[in-house]
Amino acid sequence: MKAAKTVDRHSTNQITEGVIWKQLLFFFFPILFGTFFQQLYNTTDAVIVGNFVGKEALAAVGGPASTLINLLVGFFMGLSSGATVIISQFYGASHEEDVKKAVHTAMALSIAGGAVIMLLGLLFSGAALRAMNTPADIMAMSVRYMRIYFLGVIPSLIYNMGSSILRAVGDSKRPLYFLILSCIANIFLDILFVVVLKMGVSGVAIATVLSQVFSAALVTAALMRSEDIYKLNLREIRFHPYILRNIIRIGLPAGLQSSMYSISNLIVQSSVNSFGTDTVAAWTAYGKMDGIFWMISGAYGISITTFAGQNFGAGKYDRIHKSTRICLGMAAFTSVLMSAIVLLGGNVFFRLFTTDANVIAIGMGMVRVISPCYITFICVEILGGTARGCGDAVVPTVMTALGTCVLRVAWVLIAAPLRPEMSTVAFSYPLTWSVTSVMFIIYYLKGNWLKRSRRLA
């Protein structure tokens, strides 16, 4: 990285100096609550359309349309993780000028990336849904939902990038506050547009867009009012080439990994679609329940990436290893707890979305296959997050691509036709999590990820 003028911040950086387990928890919980409200944000849409419009609307909002949205938006979010790593490393090393340039480059990337994703979504939504064998009775609603959603994708990316900047410098509280306010706005607007005005899936999509505009305005205002070195000035939003190169070097593998996850999930979703609307609706509802685990896992991943990045920038390599071990222990405990909660409470949870007995029965079959195996995923999230926080993104991406994405696709394409049951498709998740975790454990213990990162720094 390019050398830069340094600045001495008066306050102690607790991520590089404080008690690790306490700081991990202080950082983790705001992220966790933030992702909880993000999940509530999405779940509210599904609950309202499932209860006030019907199971077809539930499938349209959360089935193939959601998977395609995750493909495009997930690629950008993976790419933007490069900005998070770069900013956290510069901030940990007190490189003032580079922090400023990285912040403004990151915001420029969110605007440009959002414009590209919006165009792709508007142009190809219908063709992509048809390619996924989307059931005919939800096709029109799915297309309408996606096109409205993509009209508001730029504010969504601005909020996510702004929140990532704040988390990179150790502030995980304000993104939580902004998301809570946005979630409340989304619930109010969902009720207004769907329950009162009877606008169906269009109302859900419009409510989501307006809520994203609100959250983007909040996070942008917070960055502009900051007096720290990451202050945002709208006139200075532009690409700085060497910063952009470093963001892409770290973020592109993560973006490709996210896309590969989404592509494998698209293939899984296509297989699910072949079982009919009831199975699609059950898969949608289960995805909301499953999202509780993913929000916890993702919060740990963001936490350890920021911890590793700042301590790497400060040259505290032993602290990186210790943070990783502590984070793994926390993730193991919560994954076992989540498995128990989902298994015991699944039936009640499904009834939030639908009273259809067949949909609930199908969904509980999914629960029994996938939920007991959450612990098999944690090494992928924590060890991968550590390596990326130190700047090593390529090898984790390759391992994830092979162990999770390629193997999952192979299983669905080969095993599912031989035993055409939903349980066969669902088993692709615990199988691939286990294989990929073993690969990450071996890679982490060998230590090549840290040696390579130190040479690149």
List keywords for this structure.
disordered N terminus; mainly alpha; 457 residues; globular; 83% helix; 18 helices
Summarize it.
By secondary structure, this protein is mainly alpha-helical. The chain has helices at 14-17, 20-52, 55-62, 64-92, 96-131, 136-151, 153-168, 173-196, 200-225, 241-273, 277-313, 317-350, 357-370, 378-389, 394-418, 422-426, 428-446, 448-456. The protein is built from 18 helices and no strands.
Tell me what you see in this structure.
The protein is mainly α. The protein is 83% helix and 0% strand. It has 18 helices and no strands. α3 (55-62) runs parallel beside α4 (64-92) and α4 (64-92) runs parallel beside α11 (277-313). The radius of gyration is 21 Å and the shape is globular.
Helix-strand blueprint:
Blueprint lengths: L13 H4 L2 H33 L2 H8 L1 H29 L3 H36 L4 H16 L1 H16 L4 H24 L3 H26 L15 H33 L3 H37 L3 H34 L6 H14 L7 H12 L4 H25 L3 H5 L1 H19 L1 H9 L1
Helix pairs in contact: 2-3, 2-8, 2-9, 2-11, 3-4, 3-6, 3-11, 4-5, 4-6, 4-7, 4-10, 4-11, 5-6, 5-7, 6-9, 7-9, 8-9, 10-15, 11-12, 11-13, 11-14, 12-13, 12-14, 14-17, 15-17
Q: Over all CA atoms, what is the radius of gyration?
A: 21 Å
What's the pLDDT, averaged over the residues? 85
Write down the oligomeric state.
single chain
In whole angstroms, how far apart are the ends?
6 Å
